[in-house]
Amino acid sequence: MKEPVFLEGVVTLDRTGQVPLAEQIYRGFRNAVRSGLLRSGTRLPATRRLAQSLGVGRNTVNVAYDLLQAEGIVVLRPGAAAQIADELSLEGEGAKPVAPPLVTGLSARGKRLSENLRGPGRSEQHIAFQPGAPALDCFPYEDWARCLRRAARLERGDTMLYRHYAGIPALRRQLVDHLAIERGVRATPDQILITSSMQASLFLLAQALADPGDEAWLEEPGYIGARTAFHTAGLTIRPMAVDRDGADPKTIVPSGNRSRLIYVTPSHQFPFGARMPLARRLVLLEQAGKAGAVVLEDDYDSEFLFEGRPVAALYGLAEEGRVVYMSTFSKSLMPGLRIAYCVVPECLAERLSQGVRNMGCAANVQTQAALAHFMDSGGYRKHLKTIMQIYLERGSALVAALKNRLGDRISVEAPAGNVQVTLAFRQPVDDVAISAAMHRHGFSVSPLSSYYVGENAKPGLVIGFAGASMKEIETGVQTLARLLDDAERTSKAAFVERRPG
Amino acid sequence: MKEPVFLEGVVTLDRTGQVPLAEQIYRGFRNAVRSGLLRSGTRLPATRRLAQSLGVGRNTVNVAYDLLQAEGIVVLRPGAAAQIADELSLEGEGAKPVAPPLVTGLSARGKRLSENLRGPGRSEQHIAFQPGAPALDCFPYEDWARCLRRAARLERGDTMLYRHYAGIPALRRQLVDHLAIERGVRATPDQILITSSMQASLFLLAQALADPGDEAWLEEPGYIGARTAFHTAGLTIRPMAVDRDGADPKTIVPSGNRSRLIYVTPSHQFPFGARMPLARRLVLLEQAGKAGAVVLEDDYDSEFLFEGRPVAALYGLAEEGRVVYMSTFSKSLMPGLRIAYCVVPECLAERLSQGVRNMGCAANVQTQAALAHFMDSGGYRKHLKTIMQIYLERGSALVAALKNRLGDRISVEAPAGNVQVTLAFRQPVDDVAISAAMHRHGFSVSPLSSYYVGENAKPGLVIGFAGASMKEIETGVQTLARLLDDAERTSKAAFVERRPG
Questions:
Q1: CA distance to partner chain B, nearest, from residue A368 (Å)
Q2: pLDDT, tens digit, for every residue of B120-165?
Q3: With respect to CATH, is domain B5-84 assigned 1.10.443.10?
Q4: Does residue B156 sit at the A interface (CB-CB below 8 Å)?
Q5: Class of B382-498 per CATH?
Q6: What is the pTM of this model?
Q7: CB-based contact (8 Å) between B402 and chain A?
Q8: Is pLDDT at B452 greater than 50 in this prediction?
């Protein structure tokens, strides 16, 4: 019996218990065959002998040999020595190592799909002032944990299998009632699509309603998530001016038949906060009709505007099929729940629901069931009341501190809702540099200029207040004032240096 | 004071309490303005008077008027009657009803994105034998509910905010260990992307790694979810023959440089169940290298193969960047958790991770945290052992019943794992018709022919056994036998009829 002398070198055992010994023996042989060290017909040592030389139980070697046989690497015959399979040499021209492959890269589409339009990522440490983030300290962890546990125990039916991709019936029904009462949106449960995020809704709608090269209108400045979805879909992005009444639809210039989408935040313009008046809403719908475009109404924070009741959604003013209504639980509850929804035209509901399935962006079922119960039991409404009060306090404190410290260097208005305020600098300031400096001090503000697509970006900062403590507000605004002083001194010095002789 | 006589008709109150009365009054006026019934400058009745005539409190009318003012529809001046705003008439050419819009349809891409390649949907009632579904009666509801509640109570940090889109660190670390020990897959945590489903992973990779018109190779027959992802991405789908050793890579004919993706299920070919031998795996990698394609290895059920240990993943045999490894918790736990993952090349990890964020298909954070704990505490391993035993029993019972009742009319093999078996008919049978008939009897089998892309589809059935009771297995197979008898009689009768008289 010919037995290769290097056999023990083939198998190097790691006895830390991480990988079963049989598995290691099996892998050693497999690699040896693959690298050409062991060839077809080579006989393997008897199990007893290999077990002895490796210091393992005989059964361990048996298991390894079984694995090798199962994979067609080794042939075991009763009464004969195990040997490397013959067939290997027939089909096994590939048994020599393959040439190192070129690293395969992204497709042209993939480059767009994986681009980061938001600028540098946030640090992994906790930092204050993140725009768009709700307060970690206001989430009803105990109540929610109970809802979730309840859902996990009760939800034992087919909802947990491959169905209801666009949302479970219980949550859709809750949303139908909620939307009718709170937002003036009338819809059937089938028209409500529940997805894993606002971003998934935007991605789906951009892809499903427009082809590459089509135009999408975006508020200027506007939401980067919408810009990302349109960019990803290969659309041509056209900016729509924003003034004190929100997006100005008169700046929409239809070009041929290619305007397919108009993205707006009429309840509370992102990031400035304007509420769009009725007259303008009607003009917007008319412009959309002329252009043959669908309006995507992002109603991300209307549930907790501070002053009075929010106005009804644009959706309720429009003819069927003209407006898609979109919202999320990221602001009113938590982004980590990964749950958002949209209301789509009846005639497209079935197809777009299949789109959610095909894209794979369905929301976790137990979270949906927990949320349906949380809404039904009144917990959600109670939570909204709580955060509205706290956010109003924090937002007012931030704006007071900003006005107090920065006075006429900025313009900023008391927040009408939401989780952030936007300030504009009255003088030219490099807001990207200021944001980066703030970030180094532990404050995650965003430069206003990054929310613009076109050339006429204004400098400013978007500052999240929802999760900020009074201490963080005080320190953050102090830090900002100091950084602005430094920047001003530096730029004056540079100006002096640059003056002729 | 001119006061329109129809004013009371403008507002029709519904007193069931569904919508606040003030909201209804506000809506009534808004609609009246919109429809042109009320024009700019029209004075509104005094609040007291309107309150009387509607039979509501005066404060209710005040709230409604405040809402109308907030939206710019009404102007309130101290000491003067409220009136419809002037501005409305200026900007308000649009205040006349807009023309009914054309129903805006799907884009060309949207039609693909929302297509259903799986055939008619399943009924909402519970039916047995659904392929791919795990057992509802084996899920550890109580243990899982505790893990979920624990996660919801403990996960109070920044993981719940806008970060970790491609998976929380705790679960990624668990998966690194799990994959190394169980599947021979070595990866860093950054290479692991956690998504909302296998479908989302496939969608992302198809879009990110191939452009429209590029080729993707698919097992024939093969997984419809992969076909859907490729179809949705506008790829040209090319079939790869399948035999008793799984997909045959020799049938891959590289055409230019356009083959970008090769989708395989080497551990357990879907739907037939073959395990691909080592020699063939090496040929597959070589062919992929020649074609410049990435292999998508779908390892959907390797964690619970019944016989012996599963062989290591193809991933471990390949050079960096050649294979993307994909798996899901839909089979080992539940589809409703909406959680899956893939292992991508290091050089693409950051971009693809951004792709998950841009697509919005992140998984629920509390579920991720619960799963990390479930794996760490040994609960997951214990659960796998349990279902392996039960699935083996159910699968064996189904195959025994099929062989017993249908004998030589079918060929079927004992399941080597997984949650379904595939039988092939030895005679020509309309498997779509048989499946539809079975469905009407409450058995959700799938026609084998629907898993083929090309012309040479074989008739057969894919039958899920994981969730089937012994009674359902018995009744289901009886029903199938009877339906086959009926079909045979009908086709013989038709043959007799068609014979020349």
A1: 10
A2: 665 556 688 999 899 999 999 999 999 999 999 999 988 899 889 9
A3: no
A4: yes
A5: alpha beta
A6: 0.84
A7: no
A8: yes
